[in-house]
Amino acid sequence: MPRVLGDSTTNRMFQTANVFVLILVGFICIFPFYYVFVVSFATPEQFRQGGLLLFPKQWTLASYEYILATKAFLRAAGISGFLAVVGTAASLLVTSTLSYGLSRKRLQGRKVMLVLILLSTLFNPGIIPGYLVVKELGMINNIGSLIIPVLTNGWYVLLMKGFFDSISPSLDEAARIDGCNEISVWFRIILPLSLPSLAAFGLFYAVGYWNTFFNAVLFINDHNKWPLQILLQNILIDSSTAMGGNVMEQSMQNLPTETKKMAAVVISTIPILLVYPFLQKHFAKGAMIGSVKE
């Protein structure tokens, strides 16, 4: 009996320590986001007082009005939105169709293609060869250079192939007996069954396209074609020159640069935060299905 009590006490101490550590880690992760959010709504007077600003006594939307009124920010947000929507749709189309084809044993050259895809996950061609390929294709300063080089991902293809492997080939055969061709089988049978997987990998692709930065630095020289992350970098470096709004800058000189930076960061994160709750119910299932076999 004393031994049981001792084990129970130890277990409670462990659970208490575990909860404390998790709360501490959660606070450390959440606090920077909270601070960015609070500073973005702070008035210039409160921010210039210095110190750690935890809760403004007076809230203002001046920084958001400044950001949303600048053509450079709206143009960059539109480009990033275009990349997220069109790029994600194109990537899902290529990845899902390629994965489905590789999951069917009747595909000729299937094993060779699988080996090549596996090698692409192990070896990276590097920055210079990638840049030269894009340059030879004439895509420098072209929005397509931010989509085509990353149109699919070998690891995602292999994971999604595992999902399609779990779909019985008898469904394909039954659909063909009913008169369906390959395209009809894909859209009427396979695609509806693939929604959890498509939702999960679609979120991966959407976040990647929305946060496009390095490829834009390499391939886009025209500031009118910058995606949002490049513009944010320039805002962090020099707000007055990056926004390209001299008239707006003169009329709102009292706004601290830091509050405008924080407002830009908050605005840039909102779209992904809004999309995630709608896909969350499919996320865990879609990401893990096909990765293990029962």
Automatic annotation (TrEMBL):
Transmembrane parts of this sequence: 20-42, 73-100, 112-134, 146-164, 185-207, 262-279
Q: Is Oxidoreductase set as a keyword in this record?
A: no
Q: Per UniProt, which keywords does this protein have?
A: Cell membrane, Membrane, Transmembrane, Transmembrane helix, Transport
Residue stretches making up the ABC transmembrane type-1 domain = 77-279
Gene Ontology cellular-component terms listed: plasma membrane
The GO annotation for biological process reads: transmembrane transport
InterPro entries, from UniProt? MetI-like, MetI-like_sf
List where in the cell it is found.
Cell membrane
Q: How does it sit in the membrane?
A: Multi-pass membrane protein
This protein's major location comes to: membrane
What family name appears in the similarity comment? Belongs to the binding-protein-dependent transport system permease family.
Per its record, how is this protein called by name? Carbohydrate ABC transporter permease
